[in-house]
Amino acid sequence: NTTTWVVTGDKLVYSTDTTTATSSSNLSVARGQVTAQSERSTKAYFAGGFDLTVKYATTDKLTFSTDTTAAQASADLSTARSAVAGSNGDSTKGYWTGGTTAGVGSEVVTGEKLTYSTDTTAATSSVNLATKRTNHQSGGDGSTLSYWFCGQTGFLITTVNKTTVSTDTTAATTSAASGGCYSAASGSDGNQLFSMGGNDVSVGARASGSKIVFATDVSSGLAGGSDLTKGRQLCMGITTVAL
224 or 193: whose pLDDT is higher? Predict the structure, then answer.
């Protein structure tokens, strides 16, 4: 099999449930394992990635009003890497964490802050993860905190880290993740972070999910009947209130 890396950008119109190719929103460089976050009202960012031979620090900015994506050098990651996680912090800033700079064994703890008003990303050591990881899940409440959930570093990680937005500080929580996995889909409704699917190493692609309750930092498995129709990994997800 061969892999073709693409720049393709599609637009989904919510009122009609219709997706169409929108060339003006294409990425500036063809790559996979890109991560994204949104400022929530006017723009979004797509960062990092790789094309088998090259890791990228490249960040592109999508302007909603014009459906236009363009390279935004000031927002580039501090180091080239793929499988980074991103999370909106509040209306003024967001974060990038983790990822891998080469192959297995090159996972990092690197934390960066993206300032929306200036489209600027800067390495911020206080945001660094407590444990290096890649292919991890992320999400927050959109104002006070963001979580970094599970992932891998050659093996499965089941811990949860939390970033406090007011201080740009990341620390390990005392609650380990229930149903730890990597390469899962995640989404936050502002009160809970949900993780579905992914790979848990022992059985491979899983159909089950878990959640973190923000008020308590406690993780638990989801109730029966909430599983995906089949096990899958590298899937994507979003909640009705996307943060």
Answer: 193
β-pairing, 185-188 with 192-196?
A: antiparallel
The DSSP annotation for 189-200 comes to: -SSEEEEE--B-
Residue 188: band (very low, low, confident or very high) from pLDDT cuts 50, 70, 90:
confident
pLDDT score at 118: 98
Structure tokens at 153: 């570093």
Q: Label residue 4 exposed, middle or buried (CB < 10 Å: 0-12, 13-18, 19+).
A: exposed
CA distance 222 to 162: 21
HSE-CB for 104 with a 13 A CA cutoff: 4
What would the mean pLDDT of 156-179 be, rounded to a whole number? 87
DSSP string covering the chain: ---------EEEETTTTEEEE-GGG--SS--BS-EEEE-SSSEEEEE--B-SS-B---EEEEETTTTEEEE-GGG--SS--BS-EEEE-SSSEEEEE--BSSSTT-B---EEEEETTTTEEEE-GGG--SS--BS-EEEE-SSSEEEEE--BSSSB---EEEEETTTTEEEE-SSPPTT--BS-EEEE-SSEEEEE--B-SSSSB---EEEEETTTTEEEEPPTT-S-SS--SS-----SS--
The whole-angstrom separation of Cα 202 and Cα 127 is 31
